[in-house]
Design brief:
Layout lengths: L1 E7 L5 H12 L10 E8 L9 E9 L2 E9 L2 H21 L2 H14 L31 E2 L1 H11 L3 E6 L5 E6 L5 E4 L11
Parallel strand pairs: 1-2, 5-6
Antiparallel strand pairs: 2-3, 3-4, 6-7, 7-8
Helix pairs in contact: 1-2
């Protein structure tokens, strides 16, 4: 596995670099031989002592991008958290049947084919002026925590991010509020089938 390491507010020493290589070496038995990992180390990322050190990784593994974040009171603790989470994510991505991904892609291509026509030859929705869906995005959802979803949202520069909550196994949405803070939508479906 090829590894690139970047650091913010931290001097990247040879000992730290060797520690990162040793910890990521654990993943080599389950990743593709040509996998690429980009690690970013950040110190003083939070005022809270227990999350002041952050280690982020983007792993390109056989065409799949896996991102994970680990925090801790020291860089060693942050790296340990990161590698544990990343290992679980890599295993989950390998266990997911590839044929399911292929079927989803085929379904998406079928939907992009020509729109259904009405009796007079116009595409459906054009004559009625009804709102139309012009793009559908599908992606694999890896379970993550709220903090990871917020980091991912900020990384992408989006105002909201839909994710699979690792704690509840439900779909959630984090969003940036007008005052700069963050909010989260955690849908709960009642027994009658309606959100409550």
């Amino acid at each position: 596995m090829r590894t690139t390491v970047n650091s913010r507010n931290l001097e990247l020493t040879e000992a730290l670099r060797a520690q990162i290589d040793r910890k990521l070496h654990r993943l080599e038995r389950i990743t593709h031989p040509d996998a690429d990992a980009t690690v970013e180390l950040i110190v003083h990322a939070s005022r809270a002592a227990e999350t002041s050190h952050v280690a982020e990784v983007s792993l390109m593994n056989n065409g799949t991008v896996i991102r994970s974040v680990g925090t801790g009171p020291s860089m060693t603790a942050a790296l340990d958290n990161l590698v544990d989470r990343l290992e679980r994510q890599v295993v989950r991505s390998r266990e997911r049947p590839r044929s399911v991904r292929d079927r989803a892609e085929e379904g998406l291509q079928d939907q992009r084919s020509t729109p259904p026509n009405t009796a007079d030859g116009e595409a459906e929705g054009e004559a009625s002026g009804a709102p139309q869906v012009v793009e559908i995005k599908r992606y694999d959802m890896t379970p993550m925590f709220e903090e990871d979803a917020i980091l991912r949202m900020d990384e992408l520069g989006h105002a909201f991010f839909v994710f699979l909550n690792a704690e509840t196994d439900r779909i959630g949405v984090v969003y940036r509020r007008g005052d700069g803070s963050y909010g989260m939508i955690d849908p709960v479906v009642g027994r009658s089938g309606r959100a409550s």
